[in-house]
User: Fold these one by one.
Assistant:
Number 1:
Amino acid sequence: MKGTRLAVILGIALLMPASVAKVKQTYTDPRDGKAYEIVTIGRQTWLAENLAYKPAKGKYWAFADDEKYAKTYGYLYDWEAACQSCPPGWHLPSQAEWREMAAFLGGEAVAGGKLKEKGTAHWRAPNTAATNETGFTALPGGHRGHVSDDIFNDLYDIGHWWSATESSPRSAWFVLMLHHRPGIHFSTYPKKVAFSVRCLKN
C-alpha cells in the first residue's frame, strides 16, 4: 500500500510543471550592485522585478519624476533605452518570447492572473484573478508619454512592459496587464513612450 501511494505521489509530481519556480533565487546586476529576484517559467528565466537600472545613455524616468516610485516599480524607459538597459547575459524579451510564456501558462486569456502580484497593496481593486503562482510578481508601474510627452498615467491600474520587437520604424510591441482583467495583452505604441522593463536571461 505504501509503495502504491508513493508511486501515485511521484506520478503527480512528474505531471506538475516543475519549470515554475516556487522559491525565488537572486541575481545581482554587476553594473550597480542591485539584487533582483529571478524566477523560471517554462524554459525561461526572468527577473521577478521591474528593472531599476540607470543607464548612462538613453531616456528613462521614475514615475512622476519621484524616485520613491522607482524603488517599488522600477524605472520607465523609452524603447531605445529599454533595448540596451538589461544587464550582461540578459536581454529585453521579444514579443514571441512573451507569447511563449503566456502559452506555457495556459494562454493569453488567463496568464496575466498567474503573473500579477496578489492583493491590492500595489494593484487597484479588484486585481482580477491575481494569484502570482509563478512568482513573477507583475506590478502596475504605469507609463509616461501616452497622453502627452511629460504626463505620467496608470500607476496602480496597468502594467506595461516593452518587447524588443518593432512593429514599424517608429513603434514597437509591448505587453500590458490590467487590474480588472485576468489576461495578458499585446499592442503597439510609439517608441518614445516610456514603459517598464523585465529582462529575460539569454
Number 2:
Amino acid sequence: MSKRPPARSAARPPPASPAPDVPSVLAALRRLATRRTLEGMARYGIPSVKAFGVSVSDMQRLAKRLGRDHDLAAALWKTGWYEARMLTAFLDDPTLVTPAQMERWARDFDNWAICDTLCFKLFDRAPQAWKMVAPWSRRREEFVKRAAFALLASLALHDRRAGDAAFLRCLPLVERAAADERNFVKKGVSWALRAVGQRNRVLHAAAVATARRLAESPGTAARWVGKDALRDLLRPKVLQRLAARQRTAKT
C-alpha cells in the first residue's frame, strides 16, 4: 500500500500591520523630508522652525496609505509639526469634524498654507462648515479671518447643494472685510469674491457689482480687492464658462 502524503499545515496569515500612531507617522514624515523642500518653504511665507521639509504630494500619498482616521488626526494636530498638521487635512474624517474642532484648530493657524489646505480639503466638507464663515469673518486674528474667506471660497467651489441665497448673504461680509490691509486677509477676501462669482450667472452679476463698488473705494485694500476680483471675473474664459453652464442648465 502506498503511504498517504503528510497533511500540510494550514498557511498562517501574515501578521497584521500595526495601527499607525503618532511616532510612526512622524518617523515616516522625517524619511520623506528633504533639505531642499525645507529651505524652499521660506520663499512662500511658510514657517520652517517646526517643520521637516516634506512636499504636499508626498504628504498626500502618505495619507492615502494611512486611510481616514479622526483620532489620529487629532493627535497629530497636537504635535504642532507643520507637516503633521497639513496631513490632517487629508487624513481626518470630515463627517466627524465639529464646529468646536474647527474653532480650536483655527486658533492655531499661523500661516496661509495650513489655513487654506484645511479649509479646502477638510473643513468645507464638514456638516456645519457654513456656521463658521460669518463669525470668523469678524475675528481679529489674521489667519482666522482669512479662514472665513478661504472657507467661503472652498464652499463656492465644492458645495454643489448650496443655493444662491447662502452666497448672496456672504457678500456683505466680503465687502466689509475688504478694508483689512493685511496681505493674507485681503487676498483671502478676493479669492472668496472670485470663487462666488464663478458659480453661475446670478452670483457673477452680484459679485461683479460688489467688486465694482470696492474698486471705487477710497481705501487702498478695498480698492485692490475690487480690481483684483474684476480682472478675474471679467476674463473671457470665465464669461464663456458661465454662458456654457447656463445653456446646459436650460437643456
Number 3:
Amino acid sequence: MSIDTPSKAASRRQPTTYERYLRTDELLALQKPPAERLHRDELTFQVVHQTFELWWKLTVELMGRAGEELTADQPDEAARTLRRAVSAQDVVMPAIRQLEFVSPRDFLDIRPGLGDGSGGESPGFLGILRAAPDLWDAFAAALDRASVSLLNLYAHSHAHLALFECAEALTDFDEQFHLFRAAHLKLAQRNLGLRAIGTGGTPMPSLEKTLRDLLFPALWEARDALLEATQREQGIAPSGPASGHGLS
C-alpha cells in the first residue's frame, strides 16, 4: 500500500469554492515561475502591471456605465459611478510605488523580458483613452438637454447640482489619470535616466510632452472662463488670456 506524501495529497486536493469562484489557479499562474524569471523582482514587475490592467478593466466598464446613466438623464447615478472610477485610480496609484523598490540596475536585468513592449500598449490604458470621448459626449449632451453651459454650471453649481457633481468627478478622474502618467514617466526616468529611449522606442523628452494631454480639457478651460467672468464682474483686469474657450 502506497502512502501519500504531503505534495501528492496537495496535488489531489479539490479547490475550494473561493478558489473556483475567483479562478485563483489561473490567476496565480499568470506570472513567470521562479526558474523562468530574469530577476527575482520580475514577479513584482508583472504583478504590479497586471494589477493596473485589472483595475483599468473595471474603470473602463464604469466609464461606460456612467455614460449610459448620463444618456438616461440619471446624473445622480452617473456621479456616483464616476466617483467609483476615481476611487479605482486611488488603488492604482499606490501600486506603482512598489516598482520604486526595484533598483535601476535590477530593472535593467528585467527590461529584456519586455522586449520592445511599452506601457503605451496597455489594453487598460488604451481602453480609458478610447472611452473618454464617448463619456464626454454623453456629459455634454446632458448639459445641452438641461440648457446649461459649462461656464454657467460652474458659476451656478447649486442650480444643477447633480451635473456639477459629474463635472467635478470627471475633473477628479482626469487629474488622477494625469498624475498616474506623470508618476509612470518619473519611474521610467528613475530607472533609465532623463535622456534614455523608453522600452517602446520613445525618447524621454517625447514622453514628457504627453503630460500636456488631458482627457477632458474643457473642464480645465472652464476654470479660465470662470476666472475671467468673475474678474469682469469685480472690475478687475483679467490676469491672463482666457478667451477663445467657447464656454459662455
Number 4:
Amino acid sequence: MEVRPATRDDRVDIESVARRSLRTSYSLSPATLETLVEQYFSAEALDGRVDDPDALLLVAEDEGDVHGFAEVDAEDTLRWLHVDPAARGRGAGTALMDRVTAELAEREVPVTARVLDAASEGRGFLERFGLTRTGTASLELDGETVPEHVYAPTGSEPDAGEPTVEVPATVDVDGGETTVDRDDEVPGTDAPFLGLYERASDDSRWGFLCSECGSTDVSAGGLERLACGNCGNLHRADQWDEAYL
C-alpha cells in the first residue's frame, strides 16, 4: 500500500471514498451525509486544500486505485481519515495513520485528531494508536453545529474538575442575559456544570452551562442527573461532591 500526497487528479476518488465510508460507518441521515460530502469533499471543496502548503492531504493507493485518504489541517490536527469499505482490512488505514504520525513527528508536534460523534468505528481506530478522548469540538455544517470528539496522546487528558472552555461572565439564553456562577459547580464526567441565574443576586437557578463545550442545552433528570445535549457531558446520580454530603 503506497501513501503519497494527493493531487488534483485524486479529487473524484477522494469524494467517492468519503461518500462510501460515511454511508457505511456514520450514523448520519442521507441529507446530512450529502451536505457533508458537498461541503468538505466535493472537487470544488478539495481544490484549495490540495494546494495548501500548510495542510497535508494524503491518499493510500494500491495498483493505481485510491483506497483511502487522510487530511491534516493547518493546525496540525488530523481532521479526516477514510477508507473505502470494500478495501478495509488491507492496511490502508494503518498506512495512512503511520504516515500522518511520521509527518507530524517531523514537525515536532503530537498527533491530535477530531472525529464526528456520529462515527461508529473511528474512535476505536484512533485508540489503537495510543490516542484518548480529551475533549469535544464542533463542525460547522451548512449553518448547523455537529459535535465532534477530540483525541490526543494518552496521558494528556484534561482534568475533569476544570472547565475545558473559557467561561464567560454572562450568557445570552432565549434573548435574555443570564449570569454564570462559578461557585455553583456540579461535577461532570468531562468538565463541571455551572449554574445560570437571571441576575447575579438571584437565588433561583435558571439552568446550567456545560463548561466542556459552552452549551446551555443541559437537561436535568431524577436525582440531580444532568446531561449536555451538545457534547454528552454527564453528571450522574452517584457523582457527589462535598456540597451534597
